[in-house]
Structure formats: C-alpha cells, structure tokens
Design brief:
By secondary structure, the chain is of the alpha+beta class. Helix content is 35%, strand content 23%.
Length: 101
Amino acid sequence: MRLIVFFDLPTYTKKDLQNYNLFRRFLVKEGFVMMQESVYTKILLNGTMANLLKNRIKRNAPEKGLVQMLLVTEKQFAGIEYVVGESKSIIENSDKRLIIF
C-alpha cells in the first residue's frame, strides 16, 4: 500500500515559511518521495504501519494550512493516468518489492 500526502501550507510570513520547510523535511526524513510539488508518497508494508505513520504526520503537521492523506493499494497507484507529462521509470512506482539481505 502507499500513503499519499497532499499539502497546501501558507508561506506569507517568515514563521509560515519555517513551518512549511519543517513539515516538508519531516516527510523526507520519514521516507516520503516527492511526486510533484506539495504531493509526497511512501510505500508501506501494512495497515498497522500506515496508521502509525498517519498519527506521526498528524502530530507534526503545522497548525495553519491544509494537509490531506490518502491510502491506496499499489495496484490503484499503478493505475495513475498521465494527462500531461510522462511517467518517470523509478523503483518507487513499481508494485514489486525489493529485498536486500
């Protein structure tokens, strides 16, 4: 499964900009990959991990702005239609698992 986080945060004041950068850095530190500006995604193993991560995001989200989360299966994610632009062939867009010993 994959968790997609969408956010629209204000950047009018210096404090707003700091909050935006802190939240974005938090997502990257948690292992999220940017799909496009203000849209980040992460592959998760199961629903338990998804719930834990959702709770961490809620605790780290800024007070102002809009933060949304969507949990989809890899099959659903693979069905994304590109209207303009093209798919980049990177491992994050695959439903295959990588196991390293």
